[in-house]
Structures are given as structure tokens and as C-alpha cells.
């Protein structure tokens, strides 16, 4: 477009015959804002004009409009009385710069083979351009003018039932260690302090349990080994009890969820069904494990249209561009202002959007020039900023809950069961 490594100045104006100052020799270009012509200065100080891209386009494109295939996927394209969205605005401005009209045709997103789909569309002259797709080698395409990232999307993990809080405090390995150590301590305690027989072993276990619950136990001995054993039991029981109580209080006062799905490996481990078009599988073509998984668990569909199923199906995931996910995520919020969907990072791949055209289309270069103009002058960035969604944020103080009787479901239930069992045994013993 007339730029050279020596270019230092850009002169913008309406003068059709620009004259460069002598000291601007070979350092400036002139852009005529009325005609779109670009003038450059040669080594002799004279001006010459480069070819006008608009004129090139008009000489090769005889019609007064172009037809563009689009698919409904907010915020790129949607209906709000009129056609709106990122795609609509970019295409309208681009065609205004080319001084031609644009006709929009709605088509559903192709979920099958893209090359076969585009071949059919262009062979039947359904449209001149298919908008916002990734480059396809079998067709002509513009330079990428917009970017997004593709992410896995799953249902937000559900809250842990309160009755599980008493067991979720420690992991399984800690629970097993506690049970083993309590049993071992009880056994050693019994053999060293009470009796060499096992008749009174439950009494030793009861004493150890009392210490774990920080209840008093009076015992005197002159044996150093027994004293050391007693100190060890007291210290261990105190530490475990302290950890348990602090963790239990933390869980009861907060909002706790089941383990989240945080990667594609976790999706496969949980055998989740994935709603995907075939075109996304290309990103996993070198992963045999993923391809075998898709053969069994893929549901072919358009993620933008099937997104509403994910929050209400426990074992379903999909993949969406980040911009589409955040545009719709505010629709999927429960009564506590918690999102029903989560996006998984890092992204699967960077998406480079361009326009797909038939081979040899005269539209390619003019579209590249005007889209490049919109990029360079910040128009596309401005349009994207207009559709940036503010995510509904939850007040963090709502996650801190007061302890109520509802939180004490498990101990109260065990208490009632214990009273019932003790009462039954008491009635049985009283009859004997």
C-alpha cells in the first residue's frame, strides 16, 4: 500500500495532486480521503499514485451486493428485532467501504464434514461468502481478522450434602490412618496397662476414644514406659481432634462442592458424553485415546444450540468459544446467584476466524484490504468491546453461613438412633 522501510510520515488530506516538501523526499506517503488513492514519492521528487483497491474490486465484481452465510450464535449474530451482533457490524462496515450492499442468509452451523458442506454451498451459488470460520485449504479465505479461544464447558459441581461433611473433613487415607492408629493404640494400651487377656479390650478402646474426644481420664502409674505411652496418646488425640474440629467448623460455615471437572482427562475419567460437531475432532487427530473416546461418547450437535442441556445433565460436556460462553453464562444462574456452567482452562485451541470463499473469488483481496483497515484503525477491537459481557458476581459474604440445626443433621440423626437402640436394649434387659 505504498509503505516502505524509509516511510516516516503519512499525510492525510483531500488534495488530489499532493506536493511533498523537499525534505520529505522518499520518506512520506499521501492518502486521499476522497478517492482512497495512495500516493508515493519517487526518487526524483515527483508523485505517482498506486492502484486504487476499490477500483480493482469494481472491475472484477459486477454485482451490486454480496451474499453472506451466517449462523445464529450470540454475540456474533442474533435477532433483536433486527439482525445484530459482532459479525453483522463488521460485515456492514466492510461492505460500506467496498461501496456495495450485503445480504445476510441464515444457515445452521455445519456439524458434519466442513469441506463437503462448503463445496455444496458454493456449487449451488447459495452465497458468495461464508462468515467466521477457520481457514480451509480447499477454498479461498481472507486473512484472520478476529480471534477467540475454544474451551471445554461442563456443569458446575454441586454442593456437598451436609450429612457428608463429617466424612469429607479428612481424605480416605487420613481416615484409614486414624482408624488403624486408634485400633493399634487401643491394643497396646490394653496390653500395657489393663490386662494380658482380650476380654477387656473394648474398655481399652473406649478409654482411647474418650481421649480422642478430649474427655478426662484419671490414671496413675510408676512405669516410665506407660507414662510415655499415655503422653503419646494424649498428644496424638489432641492434635487429630483439633484438626477435625477446625476443619469441620470451616466446612459448616462455607459453601462446599464436589470435586470439579477441571480438564479433558477428568471428562474422560468420568465417562461424560460430549456434544461436539465433527470439525472440533480435528484438534485431537493426533491423540488416539481421545479419538477412541469420541467414538463412544460423542453426541454430534451444535454446542451453541445444545448448551442449554449441559446445566441439567450431570454427565454431559461440550466445547464453546470463550466469547459465546460468557455471553450466555448469565442466563444459567440459580437462585443463589451461582453459575450453573463452568469453563475449563487452559483452552483447547486458539480460534482464528476468517471468511471462506470459492476458489478464485475476486472478493478475497478487497475483503483483506478493508478488514485489515478495520483492524489497523481499531474498529474491530471497538466492536468486540461493545459485546463484552459483565459476569454477574456473587456477594462473597453470602458464602459464610450461620450454624443452624440444619447443619447438625448427621450428629442429631446418630444421637436419635443411639437413643432408640439403647432404649430397645434397656427394655429387653428389663424383661430378663
Automatic annotation (TrEMBL):
<keyword id="KW-1133">Transmembrane helix</keyword>
<feature type="transmembrane region" description="Helical">
    <location>
        <begin position="169"/>
        <end position="191"/>
    </location>
</feature>
<keyword id="KW-1003">Cell membrane</keyword>
<keyword id="KW-0472">Membrane</keyword>
<dbReference type="GO" id="GO:0005886">
    <property type="term" value="C:plasma membrane"/>
</dbReference>
<keyword id="KW-0812">Transmembrane</keyword>
<feature type="transmembrane region" description="Helical">
    <location>
        <begin position="225"/>
        <end position="244"/>
    </location>
</feature>
<feature type="transmembrane region" description="Helical">
    <location>
        <begin position="408"/>
        <end position="428"/>
    </location>
</feature>
<dbReference type="InterPro" id="IPR052192">
    <property type="entry name" value="Insect_Ionotropic_Sensory_Rcpt"/>
</dbReference>
<keyword id="KW-0675">Receptor</keyword>
<protein>
    <recommendedName>
        <fullName>Ionotropic receptor</fullName>
    </recommendedName>
</protein>
<keyword id="KW-0325">Glycoprotein</keyword>
Amino acid at each position: 500500500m505504498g509503505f516502505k522501510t524509509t516511510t516516516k510520515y503519512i499525510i492525510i488530506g483531500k488534495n488530489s495532486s499532493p506536493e511533498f516538501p523537499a525534505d520529505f523526499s522518499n520518506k512520506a506517503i499521501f492518502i486521499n480521503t476522497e478517492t482512497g488513492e495512495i500516493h508515493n514519492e519517487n526518487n526524483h521528487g515527483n508523485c505517482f499514485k498506486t492502484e486504487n483497491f476499490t477500483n480493482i474490486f469494481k472491475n472484477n465484481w459486477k454485482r451490486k451486493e454480496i451474499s453472506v452465510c451466517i449462523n445464529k450464535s450470540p454475540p456474533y449474530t442474533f435477532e433483536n428485532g433486527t439482525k445484530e451482533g459482532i459479525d453483522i457490524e463488521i460485515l456492514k462496515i466492510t461492505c460500506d467501504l467496498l461501496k456495495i450492499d450485503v445480504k445476510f442468509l441464515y444457515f445452521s452451523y455445519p456439524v458434519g464434514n466442513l469441506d463437503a458442506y462448503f463445496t455444496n454451498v458454493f456449487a449451488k451459488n447459495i452465497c458468495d461468502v461464508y462468515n467466521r470460520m477457520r481457514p480451509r485449504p480447499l477454498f479461498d479465505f481472507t486473512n484472520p481478522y478476529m480471534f477467540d479461544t475454544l474451551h471445554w464447558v461442563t456443569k458446575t459441581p454441586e454442593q456437598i450434602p451436609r450429612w457428608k461433611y463429617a466424612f469429607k473433613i479428612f481424605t480416605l487415607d487420613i481416615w484409614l490412618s486414624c482408624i488403624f492408629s486408634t485400633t493399634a493404640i487401643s491394643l497396646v494400651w490394653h496390653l500395657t496397662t489393663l490386662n494380658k487377656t482380650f476380654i477387656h479390650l473394648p474398655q481399652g478402646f473406649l478409654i482411647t476414644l474418650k481421649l480422642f474426644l478430649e474427655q478426662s481420664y484419671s490414671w496413675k502409674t510408676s512405669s516410665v514406659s506407660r507414662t510415655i505411652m499415655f503422653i503419646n496418646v494424649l498428644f496424638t488425640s489432641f492434635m487429630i481432634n483439633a484438626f477435625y474440629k477446625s476443619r469441620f467448623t470451616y466446612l459448616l460455615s462455607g459453601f462446599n462442592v464436589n470435586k470439579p471437572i477441571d480438564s479433558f482427562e477428568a471428562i474422560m475419567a468420568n465417562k461424560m458424553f460430549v456434544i461436539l460437531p465433527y470439525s472440533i475432532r480435528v484438534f485431537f487427530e493426533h491423540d488416539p485415546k481421545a479419538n477412541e473416546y469420541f467414538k463412544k461418547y460423542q453426541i454430534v450437535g451444535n454446542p451453541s444450540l445444545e448448551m442449554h442441556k449441559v446445566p441439567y445433565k450431570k454427565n454431559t460436556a461440550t466445547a464453546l468459544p470463550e466469547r459465546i460462553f460468557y455471553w450466555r453464562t448469565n442466563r444459567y444462574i440459580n437462585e443463589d446467584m451461582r453459575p450453573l456452567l463452568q469453563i475449563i482452562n487452559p483452552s483447547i485451541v486458539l480460534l482464528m476466524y476468517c471468511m471462506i470463499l470459492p476458489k478464485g473469488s475476486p472478493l478475497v483481496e478487497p475483503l483483506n484490504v478493508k478488514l485489515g483497515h478495520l483492524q489497523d484503525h481499531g474498529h474491530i477491537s471497538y466492536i468486540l468491546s461493545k459485546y463484552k459481557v459483565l459476569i454477574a458476581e456473587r456477594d462473597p459474604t453470602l458464602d459464610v453461613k450461620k450454624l443452624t440445626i440444619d447443619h447438625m443433621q448427621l450428629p442429631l440423626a446418630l444421637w436419635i438412633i443411639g437413643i432408640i437402640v439403647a432404649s430397645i436394649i434397656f427394655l429387653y434387659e428389663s424383661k430378663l
